[in-house]
Write a structure and sequence with these properties.
The structure holds two protein chains of two kinds. By secondary structure, chain A is of the alpha/beta class. Chain A is about 65% helix and about 10% strand. A six-stranded mixed beta sheet of chain A has the order 8-11-12-5-13-14, sandwiched between helices. In chain A, strands 4-3-6-7 form a four-stranded antiparallel beta sheet, with no helix packed on it. In chain B, helix 1 runs antiparallel to helix 2. Classes of the chains: A alpha/beta, B alpha/beta.
Chain lengths: ~575, ~575
């Protein structure tokens, strides 16, 4: 498990490097600038130290050389600042561009994934891969760039500069600094358990809040406020107890490491001052050492933070790469045909299909549909009605057998030409964020205003669209539009009404529309279906009765097949279903 | 945010002590450069090793004292911040419990959940940081300046200049970046929105072959985000180089002025080193302060959002005292009632007049958005009517205290919601002290007895959050049992048999009719078959009652009712 994780991280790192590879020149510049700026900022205290050495006492100051040193310092400061800005800008640039590349690639991938992937993963999870994970990854990358590298260079540089001044004091610093790291590690290990406990209780509390506040109306309706507040308070108290421990103990890291660093500082002061008396170090050298002693310990603390951050970033990157590297749907072949002038002839030959291997669903299914026939699919919820649609639209591929449209195996035609043969209205309405018009013309982008209005009139959507603040130019979206479920469904029907393809799929297309409006648009529906092969999934048996073929499905299988009268006289499942509607 | 600070009151001592101890630590840190200066001037100057050792021990002592006071500060601030958050969470949760439906509609429950969870954590963090750091950093910055004054006024003026410049740069860049960060957040939300929309519409997008357009749209939005990020990055990247320049140039000037002063004999070499150290300390603290302010602005924004929720006044008031409620001829009476939802321009119900006798069954039918649910919502006082009145047992519904009113109503909402806990716990929502006998009776009435008995632990079967481990029909039947267990005087079924098959639906209605005493029942439905046998049927259209009567009467007189009925039954009727 652990090993596996390491392999994944290694792999993710490789992939990240490949993405960054595109910006090789920039990276090289960034590293170069980092090295130079670190060297320059480490050199600065030495210069200042030399200047201090020249300020010995009353009437004993070498102004000429001080001025020379200070001018040199000014130039170094200026150059350093400019390089720092370049470096920061480059790091930002590379990070954000890599992030953009990763996001674009992930989204493009999303368009090419088989629907089975999208259906079997929670959407929130996929969205969080594209947004939160990539963001985390960006943060880690940026931090890695800016802090990891400069940190390492600073440590090495400081070490070199210190060695150049005095060997003994350097050894003292090198030996003592790890203590603060050990202490920090020790504390964070201890606090880990407190944090774990805190986040467990916090999760418990969020779940309760989610449940109670999410259903606040029910809580109110049953006067359950007191009970739910009591439950909340009980968890709240426990959370508070756990939080105090976690927050307090974790906040010890800083003071304790600072304490140890102060001790090191004092030790350097002691040995340094004695060295000055012995003449091995100058006062300026001591002041320089003291400022190094401060600088030397800082990157250690930072780097240990950066490493955790980088590990986290890699883990996030790995999750995104998982998505990017998912097996895509089988692409259209080069020799795929394009269906033109479809009449509506569809045939299923020995089709077998299941979502999960081993769990049989549709088996050995045969169906021959002549152009213009109306096929109704009936059955209790979860019986596999939508599965059939998934297969017809080639959202999923059959396991065995084949589906033919105009005598052509649908796997041998382009997806685009197959799908544009169908007009589809689903039970779950979906609208794009955009204007009403944009939503309607989806299937026929070049439609004129007259055509749009005509289609909307046919579906009785025109009257409510007219009443929207900006009519057809009103911006709507799926989640937040002020449209009722029924109105949304009318728009989806209008969308198909406008393009009227040779075949129709209506999956509970009118489930949210009240029966009165439904009756009214029935006529338009009838007109739409005239001469077109249509597949209809419906609850209402009155809609179903007029179909040429009724497929009765149960547990994924087509158990009965025939016209309304045939099935009624059969006295089977359909007859039972039909009669139960009117039993009291 | 200000009003929230009231909840810190219980932790007054901690909130004062924490920054105080933190300041002590800072003060001790400020002494260090002075000690170093003494080492250089006296220790090294006189070659006095024992003095040096003494001074270094003093530094160690200062560090130890600093550690003690800072640990004390951390403890007090953790205690105050967490105690504050605990209290605030309790207050906010209680407040949300008191909101009426109008406020819940307006704010949205998902927003409320965010306020209680992530916003609250940010605020707790903000309070903790403020207590710990907000006084420390300015104290060190200004402390260093004051220390500089004690050493030399002329040199100290350089500090003043540097601090003014540094503050201008640090805060200028920050203030410039905060609005940009907000813009970035909005752009990121756009990217998120497109992704989410793409996933939920995947079938439609693929059916219309719109994949490439989607990719193009995504890339455009994504590029806009990147462009803004790069722009903001360029500005925030100025922070380090600019502060670096200011501090280091100040050091150069300091050294040069120091050199002159030392030459004149006003200053010593050690004093120059001390001034140099103070200047370096300022830079470190100022950057810390800038980061702190960024987290604080976030915390304040979160705090303001929490405050906004606390400021929501429940628009509905209930009296405290119970009133006598004896059966009158009509149990429910609605007179000329109009309902308008908050922020809506049109009435959702207008001029409704109904009288219902105890024990009657009333069917409510109508198209989508015709006001069916609104009607049952005013009967149970989830919303107040704007005009007219609603009477329960002859008294205005507004005169009843909430508990008394709710216990008279059994409500089965459209969406079958159950809570984490056993089946028994869930049914008890309807009557807190229900016995197993009463629960079983309710299960029987709601046609759920059979499936509950099949569950491994019967009544003790654990329902998962949201009732995920039950089927839609099972959930719905349990919500009906929950409403029935308290023997309500009025039972409201808001389109709540939609997940039941026709046979179960019919059995359920029969069982309810046979209850003794039989409750007054309101059935909201789209199915004409569910309300056919009601004593009264109300037909709603666009918020108006366009028909009131029995099935047969309405078939005769109400065109809309006939249309609805025909759309579901027409041909069967002729057969």
């Amino acid at each position: 498990m652990n090993n596996n994780k390491k392999v994944n991280q290694k792999y993710a790192l490789k992939k990240v490097l490949a993405y960054i590879g595109k910006y090789k020149v920039w990276i090289f510049l960034s590293i170069l600038f980092a090295a130079v700026t670190v060297a320059l900022s480490l050199y600065l205290p030495i210069l200042i130290g030399r200047a201090i050495d020249l300020i010995v006492g009353k009437n004993n100051v070498d102004f000429d050389n001080i001025l020379k040193i200070l001018t040199e310092s000014a130039v170094i400061i200026g150059v350093n600042a400019i390089l720092q800005w370049f470096m920061n800008t480059i790091n930002n640039r590379v990070t954000f561009q890599v992030v953009r590349d990763v996001r674009n690639e992930a989204f493009t991938k999303l368009q090419n994934l088989p629907l089975s992937y999208i259906d079997s993963h929670r959407h929130g999870e996929i969205v969080s891969k594209l947004i939160a994970d990539v963001d985390q990854f960006a943060d880690g990358l940026l931090m890695g760039f800016t802090q990891f590298f400069t940190g390492v260079v600073t440590i090495l540089g400081t070490l070199a500069f210190m060695l150049s001044i005095n060997f003994k004091i350097t050894i003292l610093v090198v030996v003592l600094t790890p203590i603060s790291l050990f202490v920090a590690r020790f504390i964070s290990k201890r606090t880990y358990n407190y944090f774990k406990k805190q986040s467990e209780i916090r999760g418990e509390q969020t779940a309760l809040v989610d449940e109670m506040i999410g259903n606040q109306k029910i809580v109110r309706a049953f006067s359950y406020e007191k009970e739910s507040l009591n439950q909340f308070d009980e968890i709240n108290k426990r959370l508070s107890e756990a939080s105090i421990k976690a927050v307090f103990f974790s906040s010890l890291t800083n003071p304790v490491t600072r304490f140890i660093n102060s001790l090191i500082y004092a030790a350097v002061g002691l040995t340094g001052a004695i060295a000055v008396i012995n003449g091995t170090v100058t006062v300026g050298g001591l002041s320089c050492f003291l400022s190094y002693a401060n600088q030397y310990t800082k990157p250690f603390n930072e780097i240990s933070g950066v490493i955790t951050e980088l590990q986290n970033a890699l883990a996030c990157a790995a999750r995104v790469f998982e998505l990017i590297e998912e097996e895509p749907q089988i692409p259209d072949g080069d020799d795929s045909k394009v269906i033109t002038n479809a009449k509506g002839k569809v045939a299923l030959e020995n089709v077998s299909f299941s979502y999960t291997p081993g769990q049989k669903l549709i088996e050995n299914f045969n169906l021959n549909i002549r152009p213009g026939q109306r096929i109704a699919i009936v059955g209790p919820t979860g019986c596999g009605k939508t599965t059939l649609i998934n297969l017809l639209m080639r959202f999923y591929d059959v396991n065995e057998g084949k589906i033919l449209v105009e005598n052509e195996d649908i796997r041998n035609v382009t997806r685009e030409s197959l799908r544009s043969c169908y007009g589809m209205v689903l039970q779950e309405t979906w609208l794009k964020n955009g204007t009403v018009r944009e939503n309607i013309v989806m299937g026929k982008p070049d439609a004129t205003d007259e055509e749009v209005i005509e289609a909307a009139k046919a579906t009785h959507a025109h009257s409510f669209i007219k009443r929207l603040p900006n009519g057809y130019d009103t911006i709507i979206s799926d989640s937040n539009s002020g449209l009722s479920q029924g109105q949304k469904q009318l728009l989806c029907i209008t969308r198909v009404m406008l393009s009227i393809p040779p075949m129709l799929i209506l999956d509970e297309a009118t489930s949210s529309i009240d029966t009165r409006t439904e009756t009214r648009i029935q006529r338009s529906f009838a007109k739409m279906m005239e001469g077109r092969t249509s597949f209809i999934v419906a609850h209402r048996l009155s809609t179903i009765r007029e179909a040429d073929v009724i497929l009765v499905m149960k547990d994924g299988n087509v158990i009965e097949q025939g016209s309304h009268d045939e099935l009624l006289s059969l006295g089977g499942f359909y007859a039972k279903l039909y009669n139960s509607q009117f039993a009291v | 945010m200000k009003k929230l600070l009231v909840y810190l009151k219980g932790y007054r001592t901690e909130s004062i002590l924490a920054p105080l101890f933190k300041m002590t630590e800072a003060l001790l840190e400020l002494f260090v450069p002075l000690v170093v200066a003494a080492i250089i001037d006296k220790g090294i100057g006189n070659g006095d090793t024992s003095y040096i050792i003494k001074m270094c021990l003093l530094m160690g002592g200062l560090a130890l004292l600093g550690l003690t006071s800072s640990v004390t500060a951390q403890y007090f601030s953790a205690k105050a911040a967490i105690g504050f958050a605990e209290k605030l969470r309790h207050v906010l949760f209680r407040h949300i419990q008191s909101l009426s439906y109008s406020e819940l509609d307006e704010t949205g429950t998902s927003t409320l959940i965010t306020r209680l969870t992530s916003d609250m954590n940010q605020v707790q963090n903000g309070v903790n940081l403020t207590l710990r750091l907000f006084l420390r950093s300015p104290f060190i910055v200004f402390g260093a300046m004051i220390m500089a004054f004690t050493i030399d006024t002329k040199a100290a003026m350089i500090f003043v200049g540097a601090i003014v410049l540094l503050s201008a740069v640090v805060f200028g860049i920050m203030m410039g970046c905060i609005p940009l960060y907000n813009k970035i957040q909005k752009k990121l939300d756009d990217v998120l929105g497109i992704t989410r929309e793409n996933l939920s519409g995947v079938r439609v997008i693929r059916a219309f072959c719109k994949e490439n357009e989607e990719i193009e749209e995504f890339e455009n939005t994504n590029n806009a985000l990147t462009k803004l990020q790069k722009f903001t990055g360029k500005i925030s990247a100025l922070m380090n180089p600019l502060t670096f320049i200011i501090v280091n140039f100040a050091i150069i000037i300091l050294i040069y002025t120091g050199a002159i002063e030392v030459y004149k004999g006003i200053l010593t070499q050690g004093a120059v080193v001390a001034l140099y150290n103070y200047m370096s300390q300022i830079l470190v603290e100022l950057i810390k302060l800038a980061n702190l302010i960024i987290s604080l602005t976030k915390a304040v924004a979160c705090g303001n959002r929490i405050e906004a929720v606390l400021e929501l006044e429940p628009s509905m008031r209930f009296p405290e005292e119970k009133i006598n409620s004896n059966n009158t001829e009509y149990i429910i009476e609605i007179k000329n009632a109009d309902l308008r939802y908050k922020n809506a321009s049109d009435f959702s119900l207008s001029d409704i007049n109904i009288r219902v006798k105890p024990g009657e069954t009333v069917g409510i039918i109508g198209g989508t958005g015709s006001g069916k649910t609104s009607l049952v919502n005013i009967i149970s006082r989830f919303y107040d009517v704007e005009n007219g009145e609603v009477l329960f047992n002859g008294k205005n519904i507004k005169e009843y205290p909430s508990d008394q009113l709710r216990s008279c109503f059994g409500i089965v909402p459209q969406k079958a919601v159950l809570f984490k806990g056993t089946i028994r716990d869930n049914i008890k929502w309807g009557k807190k002290d229900a016995t197993d006998e009463e629960i079983n009776r309710a299960l029987e009435l709601s046609q759920s007895k059979e499936f509950v008995e099949k569950k491994e632990n019967g009544l003790d079967y654990e329902i998962e959050q949201g009732g995920k481990n039950l089927s839609g029909g099972q959930r719905q039947r349990l919500t009906i049992a929950r409403a029935l267990v308290g023997n309500p005087k009025v039972l409201i079924l808001d389109d709540s048999s939609s997940a039941l098959d026709f046979a179960t639906d019919a059995k359920l209605r029969k069982a309810v009719r046979e209850m003794t005493p039989s409750p007054t029942v309101f059935i909201v439905s789209q199915r004409a078959s569910s309300i056919l046998y009601a004593d009264k049927i109300i037909v709603l259209d666009d918020g108006r009652a366009v028909g009131l009567g029995t099935h047969d009467e309405l078939l005769e007189s109400c065109e809309i009712y006939r249309e609805i009925y025909d759309s579901q039954f027409s041909r069967e009727g002729k057969k």
